[in-house]
Write a structure and sequence with these properties.
Blueprint (H helix, E strand, L loop, with lengths): L4 H4 L5 E2 H9 L1 H9 L7 E2 L1 H18 L5 H17 L4 E2 L6 H17 L6 E11 L8 E11 L2 E10 L7 H4 L1 H14 L4 E8 L6 E7 L2 H20 L8 H4 L5 H11 L1
Parallel strand pairs: 1-5, 2-3, 6-7
Antiparallel strand pairs: 4-5, 5-6, 7-8
Helix pairs in contact: 2-3, 4-5, 4-6, 5-6, 8-9
Bound molecules: iron/sulfur cluster.
């Protein structure tokens, strides 16, 4: 029986997001994965993204019989549930739950109007756990949707974003590398990778961004993952302060006080 992401998560593991978090800010990685500190605030973008993602998975699974109206109803239920379990949920000024519920429905209109059905679905929410040479723990994750697109096996990953992704972002993205590496390990071939990005703007936009990785990219990924594990094992977790990193950090107060504790 195929394992789910919940079951593969039970054993010690690395994920793309833990590797990426360390690269963004090792101290934030420490708070989340080593200290397992309480979250000081949760941006609404987190429960929103989870709910939107869950509904797109249903569309992928059920096909065109699943309508935009069904999706909007389900989205409202998921979003409500996700916000209720989020610790210290925060909204920006002039925004609230209803603002984001409506925005999610607007985005679903776009997603459903542009949903491509001209391919065969290979899997939906396929969990993986693969060994990475040199690492003490496997790399785990979940392919949102895998399709056979004109003979090419393609991993599709759903994303919500504040703005459109700039040119070149998909080609540099670590998730596409980590997931393509895992796919090759599981299925013996390098897939095409497609990001389906839905912007959270007033007039939402859907981008389909294709990218491809090579064996050299995989060698670099293995090198990088090993360096991260070695760095974590040293126990040195530096803060990397930047507007991009810190704006939505869930550990801002802890971070401000970290040097006082160490003194
Ligand atoms: S506030 Fe910034 S520097 Fe501090 S842990 Fe968070 S992301 Fe890192």
């Amino acid at each position: 029986m195929e394992r789910t992401i919940e079951t593969v998560r039970e054993a010690p593991h690395w994920s793309y997001s833990s590797l990426q978090l360390f690269l963004n800010c090792p101290l934030r990685y420490y708070f989340r994965y080593v200290e397992k500190a309480e979250v000081e605030r949760t941006s609404v973008s987190l429960p929103f993204g989870r709910a939107f993602h869950a509904v797109l998975s249903l569309r992928a699974e059920k096909g065109s019989v699943y309508s935009a109206e069904d999706a909007k109803e389900d989205f409202a239920v998921y979003f409500r549930g996700e916000t209720e379990v989020s610790e210290n949920l925060t909204y920006k000024q002039d925004e609230d739950y209803w603002f984001w519920e409506q925005r999610g429905c607007d985005m679903l209109e776009v997603a459903f109007a542009e949903w491509p059905d001209d391919y065969s679905v290979k899997s939906v929410a396929e969990a993986f756990s693969v060994d990475v040479p040199g690492l003490s723990k496997p790399l785990i994750g979940e392919f949102d949707l895998v399709v056979n697109d004109g003979g090419d096996e393609t991993i599709c990953d759903f994303k919500t974003a504040s703005t459109k992704w700039p040119t070149g972002k998909a080609d540099r993205d670590l998730q596409a590398t980590a997931f393509s590496f895992a796919y090759q390990k599981r299925h013996g071939k390098i897939p095409i990778f497609r990001f389906d990005v839905f912007t959270k703007a007033k007039n939402p936009v859907h981008q389909q961004l294709y990218t491809l990785r090579t064996n050299d990219d995989f060698d670099r990924f293995v090198y990088l993952a090993n360096k991260i594990e070695a760095a974590v094992n040293t126990g040195i977790f530096l803060p990397v302060e930047s507007c991009m990193n810190c704006a939505e950090c869930a550990y801002g107060d802890r971070c401000k006080a970290v040097h006082r504790k160490a003194a």
